[in-house]
């Protein structure tokens, strides 16, 4: 579809241009347009992803160099070896490809569980459909908290304010009207234009969709800036780990190549050998291993009602040490119960009950539990004579919602909201007998009552009314009281989080008295509470200390939520934020892990990395544990691959000095690496020792370096024992030497996985069935390879059966050494493995 340019036309003209009408499209017409324009998404079509994903397995510089060198060898006549090398490289790529494709397919299925919906007119009826099924010509309905699903022109609007910060950088919402603008008006300056990706801050309206997907203004901006989400803490760790390995690899490869040239070995073969070693040292399956681990973790979490939208955020779950959360629905039950509507004397008020019901029943903004609780009450009188004529929607500055009615020829405005914000627009109070009195005479009494009931744990709204349609000189009518008890198991869940090394901080918009009541029930001292007013006087530098010390933040506005999150992150913490409203979006974006609830606002779900199908801290606690399992299994591969590959490099570098032939041919190096990776791929399904889940997991490059050296040298020790047996006992020629070392190398690498996967003695930690099966399969299979017909193709020959006795002894010595090294490695607190 060509870019829409007719914004300046009147709405009837645009409807005609798009061959639509204010009653919307028919189902058949919308389906035809969906086929024509494609889904309303910025993602490229999924077809073609297969070949792209496959080719991405070979994008590392080392793999490309190896392929290039193999092709050069092919040209120079080394057809067999070059073909075998290219085949092994292709098989390695296929292994990674199938694992990653499975991970991506699993993620797509999970994302369907948290699909965003939009209200649209189809066949003249309002229905909810997936945002991706929106087409040009659709008529959509919007209200506070909704994400604008496509570029649209307003048909109708009531006090509609839109947050366009993601496109313009403006921090304040912009009012939108149906007024058209001249043709030369910039796109984002048009009052009647709504852009995909922006957010309805307050009000409501209907709009005509004119552009979807890649034809939207947001798509053009995203394409120009090539936006990528910021790196997660885990991704930063992976990048730094890759840089470290690259440095080690370059040094060792240059040394080994130089030594082989000095010893006058064939140049092309020495170059291929060096490159094969480089590929061997580099855990090139790490991206696939990470994807597989993450997809396994995502599936496990989904079974426990935690849906992952962005896979790397699982690893951040494992690292998270501070969780910030709202109070309602997490600490409390979240099912607000209406306790009563009271007059200024603290007694029930039938007029207050009726006015509160009218306000909630007819407001058309963002639906919330408070309004629902009021609507569920039976009104004390008929509402037929009351006709809504206008609405001033709730926003986070005014903190009140007003609805204007016409009744018996007169206009009445009914307003409810936060006590202080309603009180500031009142000038009188209505007494129980219906008479009016100056507000100032009762101000202190009202404030005392409000603070007393709040400190008892009640959520209090103020109610007022006035003649006319203005929020000025209103009459204070009374209080609406709600109660939301804390969840029975919440103290236990918080204690469980604390045992896991995760501190909970409660950030709420409620007043300090209500927050203080909850704190007392949870055993939190009142000195651990700070209000938004107090926070506004704290400098950014001081906030680094205050944010860590305080536990409850009360009467906090959306900007302050973001400020608290950023301060905690700057202090070195990995921070998660749990929120479900439009006022949580900035905090969700700012956190290391943004967590929303499926029942929350679309904007919150869009901003989040993880979506809970239940708003429950116990569900989140389980999710944290799964995140740690995923991270730990990823680290198992890192420890295993780096120590084994470093040991191989050290062995080959040393033995090259004494041999007049290459210890392994390039194709044999790659085959060794391929078979060694097979058991390690199964680590994604491995069980995790419970004691390693007790605190957040972090990347630790110094630890990885020490582990690589200590256990790599043990691996090399086994290699040198094998060299001695082969050279001095069996007087091995090059073929027997390579065959014997190949068998020892792969078998020891497979078996040691069972030891290195746990800090316990290996038989005290039960591995997964798939890991056991893969280790057994590789171990048994490798022992027989030298005796197969394929052995000659790879340059191997049958091994004397007498070799298997010393081979068994060497492997036992190696595994015993690993167990002893683990004991001292952890006992002396050189560091911790996870």
Q: What overall form do the CA principal axes indicate?
A: elongated
Structural class: alpha/beta
Low-confidence stretches: 224-228, 829-834
Please list the strands of the largest sheet in the order they lie side by side: 8-23-22-21-9-18-20-19
> Approximately what portion of the residues adopt beta-strand conformation?
15-25%
**Largest sheet, strands/sense/barrel:** 8 strands, mixed
Helix coverage percent of residues? 40-55%
Number of strands: 23
* Whole-angstrom Rg: 33 Å
Quaternary state of this entry equals single chain
Overall pLDDT level? 80
Number of helices: 28
Distance between the termini: 52 Å
Please provide a written account of the structure.
The chain is of the alpha/beta class and 834 residues long. Helices cover 48% and strands 16% of the residues. The strands form three sheets. The chain has an eight-stranded mixed sheet, with helices on both faces. Strands 10, 11, 12, 13, 14, 15, 16 and 17 form an eight-stranded mixed sheet that branches. Strands 1, 2, 3, 4, 5, 6 and 7 form a seven-stranded antiparallel sheet that branches. Strand 11 (387-392) and strand 12 (400-407) form a beta hairpin. The two termini are 52 Å apart. The model is unreliable at 224-228 and 829-834 (pLDDT under 50).
């Amino acid at each position: 579809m060509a870019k829409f340019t007719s914004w300046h036309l009147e709405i009837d003209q645009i409807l005609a241009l798009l061959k639509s009408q204010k009653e919307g499209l028919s189902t058949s017409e919308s389906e035809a347009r969906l086929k024509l324009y494609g889904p309303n998404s910025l993602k490229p079509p999924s077809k073609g992803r297969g070949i792209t994903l496959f080719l991405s397995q070979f994008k590392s510089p080392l793999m490309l160099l190896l392929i290039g060198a193999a092709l050069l060898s092919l040209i120079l006549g080394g057809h067999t070896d070059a073909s075998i090398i290219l085949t092994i490289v292709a098989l390695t790529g296929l292994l990674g490809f199938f694992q990653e494709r499975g991970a991506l397919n699993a993620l797509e299925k999970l994302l369907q569980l948290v699909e965003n919906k939009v209200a649209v007119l189809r066949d003249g009826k309002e229905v909810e459909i997936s945002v991706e099924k929106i087409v040009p010509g659709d008529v959509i309905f919007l209200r506070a908290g909704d994400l604008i699903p496509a570029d649209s022109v307003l048909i109708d609007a009531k006090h509609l304010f839109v947050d366009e910060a993601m496109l313009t950088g403006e921090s304040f919402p912009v009012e939108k009207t149906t007024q058209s603008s001249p043709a030369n008006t910039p796109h984002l300056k048009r009052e009647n234009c709504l852009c995909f990706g922006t957010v309805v801050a307050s009000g409501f309206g209907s709009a005509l969709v004119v552009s979807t997907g890649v034809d939207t203004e947001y798509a053009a901006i995203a394409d120009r800036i090539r936006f990528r989400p910021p790196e997660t803490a885990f991704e930063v760790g992976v990048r730094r780990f890759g840089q470290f390995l690259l440095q080690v690899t370059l040094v060792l490869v240059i040394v080994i190549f130089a030594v082989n040239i000095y010893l006058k070995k064939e140049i092309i073969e020495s170059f291929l050998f060096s490159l094969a070693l480089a590929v061997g040292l580099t855990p090139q399956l790490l991206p696939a291993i990470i994807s597989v681990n993450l997809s396994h973790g995502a599936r496990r979490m989904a079974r426990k009602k935690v849906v992952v939208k962005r896979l790397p955020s699982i690893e951040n779950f494992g690292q998270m040490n501070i969780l910030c959360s709202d109070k309602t629905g997490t600490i409390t039950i979240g099912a607000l119960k209406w306790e009563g509507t009271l007059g200024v004397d603290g007694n029930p008020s039938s007029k207050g009950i009726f006015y509160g019901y009218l306000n909630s029943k007819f407001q058309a903004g963002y639906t919330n539990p408070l309004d629902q609780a009021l609507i569920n009450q039976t009104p004390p009188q008929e509402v037929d004579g009351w006709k809504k004529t206008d609405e001033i929607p709730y926003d986070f500055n005014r903190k009140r919602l007003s609805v204007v009615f016409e009744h018996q020829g007169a206009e009445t405005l009914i307003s409810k909201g936060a006590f202080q914000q309603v009180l500031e627009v009142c000038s009188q109070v209505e007494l129980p007998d219906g008479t009016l009195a100056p507000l100032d005479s009762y101000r202190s009494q009202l404030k005392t009552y409000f603070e007393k009931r709040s400190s008892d744990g009640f959520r209090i709204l103020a109610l007022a009314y006035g003649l006319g349609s203005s929020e000025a000189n209103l009459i204070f009518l009374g209080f609406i009281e709600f109660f939301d008890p804390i969840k029975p198991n919440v103290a236990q869940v918080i204690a469980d989080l604390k045992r896991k090394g995760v501190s909970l901080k409660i950030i709420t918009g409620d007043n300090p008295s209500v927050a203080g009541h909850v704190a007392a029930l949870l055993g939190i001292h009142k000195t651990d509470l700070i209000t938004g007013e107090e926070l506004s006087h704290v400098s950014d530098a001081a906030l680094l200390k205050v944010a860590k010390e305080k536990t409850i933040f009360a009467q906090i506005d959306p900007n302050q939520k973001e400020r608290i999150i950023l301060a905690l992150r700057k202090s070195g913490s990995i921070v998660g934020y749990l929120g479900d409203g439009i006022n949580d979006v900035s905090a969700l974006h700012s956190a290391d892990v943004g967590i929303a609830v499926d029942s929350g606002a679309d904007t919150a779900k869009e901003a989040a990395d993880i979506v809970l199908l239940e708003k429950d801290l116990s569900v989140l606690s389980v999710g944290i544990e799964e995140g740690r399992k995923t991270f730990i299994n990823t680290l198992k591969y890192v420890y295993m691959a780096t120590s084994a590959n470093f040991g191989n490099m050290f062995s080959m570098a040393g033995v090259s000095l004494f041999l007049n032939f290459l210890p392994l041919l390039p194709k044999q190096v790659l085959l060794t690496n391929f078979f060694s990776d097979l058991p390690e791929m199964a680590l994604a399904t491995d069980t995790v020792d419970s004691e390693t889940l007790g605190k957040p997991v972090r990347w630790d490059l110094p630890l990885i370096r020490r582990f690589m050296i200590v256990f790599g040298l043990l691996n090399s020790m086994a290699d040198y024992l094998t060299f001695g047996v082969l050279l001095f006992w069996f007087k091995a020629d090059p073929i027997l030497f390579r065959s014997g070392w190949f068998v020892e190398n792969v078998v020891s690498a497979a078996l040691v996985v069972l030891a290195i996967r746990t800090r316990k003695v290996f038989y005290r930690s039960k591995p997964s069935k798939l890991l056991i099966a893969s280790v057994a399969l590789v171990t048994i299979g490798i022992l027989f390879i030298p005796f197969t017909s394929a052995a000659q193709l790879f340059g191997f020959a049958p091994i004397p059966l007498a070799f298997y006795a010393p081979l068994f002894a060497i492997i036992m010595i190696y595994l015993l050494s690993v167990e002893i090294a683990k004991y001292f490695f952890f006992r002396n607190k050189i560091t911790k493995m996870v």
